[in-house]
Write a structure and sequence with these properties.
Layout: H1 24-28, E1 50-53, H2 63-72, E2 77-83, H3 95-101, E3 108-114, H4 122-127, E4 130-135, H5 143-152, E5 156-161, E6 179-183, H6 199-212, E7 217-221, H7 229-235, E8 239-242, H8 252-268
Helix pairs in contact: 7-8
The structure holds 5-O-phosphono-D-xylulose.
């Protein structure tokens, strides 16, 4: 079997019935995890344009190869959409899977936790090598305490606002945030249509962040592609999570570069 092409690394549901084997090297790498301890350094998670591919669309049977491919294609970070089938209907992966993929990519990992009681596993996600942990306020009993716990573990803290969640949820905890994620789809599945109505919410979040004087990245996630990224960037987003759209490009590298160029052009015109 020759070198896997990009399309071979798509989720089996997308590339039906193509039996491919992951290279032996991907299986032989030792499992390693990076420990992040102590207060998070003043990391900047994206006050310049960042393109953050989502791992969600890849074929989980070739995960190591896929994240290595995304890293080599120029990803600024990779987003791991951890779903527990409770907070959202879908069920994906947890910290052990992320830890197994960690040695296969040099870029940063962020965990988007769409799970009930996520605070019970924060340490496991940090030990798995995630430098940024993004949580939904509705999943937390005590959002302020949970965000503080993430930072005490040495990771950056992000708050995810679903389409129905007001920007005001971010206000009381801005001093604990490194990133606000404005969801441009309802959480749970990739490949959904972009909600253009969320651009007004992105703009309000941008005003809130700029008014705070804090270095807080503004990320969008859901339906981000060549036709939608400019609107999100013009509204005020810096960081763009892209899943499905990247795999439709001629190559992952071209897809990432195209999105970056479109976002930078729209941001400059802001
Ligand atoms: O996180 C979610 C949904 O919960 C997705 O938005 C993925 O993160 C990206 O999906 P695409 O829409 O880019 O395929």
């Amino acid at each position: 079997m020759g070198q896997l092409g990009d399309l071979d690394l798509l989720h089996a549901a997308t590339v039906a019935g193509r039996p491919v084997r992951s290279p032996a090297s991907a299986r032989s790498r030792p499992h390693a995890s990076r420990l992040l301890r102590g207060p998070a350094p003043a990391r900047r998670f994206g006050v310049a344009v960042r393109i953050v591919p989502s791992v969600l669309p890849v074929d989980f049977a070739h995960l190591g190869e896929a994240v290595a491919r995304l890293d080599a294609a120029g990803a600024d970070r990779l987003q791991w959409d951890a779903m527990d089938g409770q907070f959202v209907p879908n069920l994906t992966f947890g910290p052990d899977v992320i830890a197994a993929a960690r040695p296969h990519a040099g870029c940063g990992f962020e965990a988007h936790l769409m799970c009930e009681r996520p605070e019970e596993l924060f340490e496991r996600y940090v030990d798995a090598g995630c430098e940024l942990i993004i949580v939904h306020p509705e999943s937390l009993r005590q959002p302020h305490a949970a965000l503080r716990q993430i930072r005490e573990l040495g990771a950056g803290a992000g708050l995810a606002l679903s389409p129905g969640t007001p920007v005001a949820f971010a206000e009381p905890v801005l001093d604990l945030l490194d990133l606000v994620l404005v969801m441009t789809v309802n959480p749970g599945f990739g490949g959904q249509p972009y909600l253009v109505s969320m651009e007004a919410k992105v703009a309000r979040t941008r005003e809130l962040i700029d008014g705070s004087g804090r270095e807080i990245a503004l990320e969008v996630d859901g339906g981000i592609g060549p036709d939608t990224i400019a609107g999100a960037a013009a509204a005020g987003a810096d960081v763009f999570v892209a899943g499905t759209s990247l795999w439709r490009a001629a190559s992952l590298a071209e897809g990432i570069e195209d999105l970056r160029a479109r976002a930078e052009a729209a941001r400059t015109a802001r």
